[in-house]
């Protein structure tokens, strides 16, 4: 009986398919959710709020 063979086999972690699936799902969400959030808020923003109102001295006097 060789102890080196049994310890080498037990040192390897078991392969978990569900762990790879969950990891892949987390990676995809991490990449896609910020992209969709940026696109959503960029398209929904009001560009008129970003344009400055020109100064006019006539409006102040009236």
TrEMBL record:
> TM spans, by residue?
21-43
- Top-rank taxon: Bacteria
Q: Which UniProt keywords apply?
A: Membrane, Transmembrane, Transmembrane helix
Entry protein name:
Uncharacterized protein
């Amino acid at each position: 009986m060789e102890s080196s063979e049994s310890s080498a086999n037990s040192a390897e972690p078991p392969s978990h398919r569900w762990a790879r699936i969950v990891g892949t799902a987390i990676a995809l969400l991490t990449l896609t959710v910020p992209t969709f959030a940026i696109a959503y808020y960029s398209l929904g923003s009001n560009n008129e709020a970003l344009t400055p109102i020109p100064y006019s001295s006539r409006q102040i006097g009236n």
